[in-house]
């Protein structure tokens, strides 16, 4: 079975539904409040484990109630949390205001995620056993870079989702095998709004790129081959939250199993298309049997 390690964030999403959203200084009565486990790292871990991999999560939760729930949620999905640290202080939280038009405003407080500044003894040993290491940018860049470099030392494929978009240290890019930005992140990284131009620029720094294009699918490019466009499945989307994380998790599983790139991209697109037809982040993520049947 493919073994993946995710070095990434766990957040409790605190979601209020209110319309119209309040302006600064206003107090309004909203409709609903929900707490939903999230964080890009945890989301990719759940996507990958449901897609059929063995998945281990490295990161941190806080020593609060949210932390216990975040850890238990990952474990319930079958993610190995032995190296998920419990830090003094609060877990990461995302404070999300959603209005009736589906618009949202989000404040992320890193909390425990911010304590993950480097690898601990044991982390590199685990990474060394993996088929791939999945990374995002919701942990301090020092840890993300250390993880990528550790993977590189052991010949382990590194897959980086550069979100939230920010300038990437050259050492991190140098240790990245596959970069998976969405079109906005690709534009922010390169200054090119046009995906093909952005991909070409990114290939100066990493050997392989997949730019996800929402309902327009995805664009794969590598140094060895010409660009390849993969259409999205034509489905009726109700909630595209975590579509990118579902795509990245499933793609890592497919590549880890040795599927050829076009097949791996099509399979990841099927997984993401299933997720956009259902509400929520991890709640929308499909299981392997569903992806295979799609
Ligand atoms: P992110 O969630 O990071 O912004 P995208 O919106 O680019 O990422 O979506 C990731 C992938 O999810 C796309 O490449 C596509 O395969 C799938 N996807 C996203 N939106 C839709 C949609 N409306 N219909 C079908 N597939 C979609």
Task: Characterise the protein shown here.
It is built from 10 helices and 13 strands. It is α/β, with parallel strands linked by helices. It has a single domain (3-293), classed as Ribokinase (UDP-N-acetylmuramoyl-L-alanine:D-glutamate ligase). It has a 9-stranded mixed β-sheet with strand order 5-4-1-8-9-10-11-12-13, with helices on both faces. It has a 4-stranded mixed β-sheet with strand order 3-2-6-7. Helix 5 (170-174) links the parallel strand 9 (157-160) and strand 10. Helix 6 (183-190) crosses helix 7. The structure holds adenosine-5'-diphosphate. Adenosine-5'-diphosphate (ADP) is lined by residues 182, 212-215, 217-218, 232-233, 235, 237, 240, 243-244, 247, 269, 272-273, 276.
Question: What's the quick description here?
Answer:
The protein has helices at 40-50, 65-76, 123-128, 141-153, 170-174, 183-190, 195-202, 243-256, 261-276, 288-293, and strands spanning 3-7, 11-17, 32-38, 54-62, 84-87, 92-98, 104-109, 132-135, 157-160, 178-179, 208-212, 218-222, 228-230. By secondary structure, it is α/β, with parallel strands linked by helices. The chain is globular, with a radius of gyration of 18 Å.
Number of helices: 10
Strand order of the largest sheet: 5-4-1-8-9-10-11-12-13
Q: What hetero molecules are in the model?
A: adenosine-5'-diphosphate
Q: What's the architecture, going by CATH?
A: 3-Layer(aba) Sandwich
> What coarse outline follows from CA principal-axis ratios?
globular
Task: Report the order of strands and helices.
Answer: EEEHEHEEEHEHEHEHHEEEHHH
Strand coverage percent:
15-25%
Which structural class matches the secondary elements?
Answer: alpha/beta
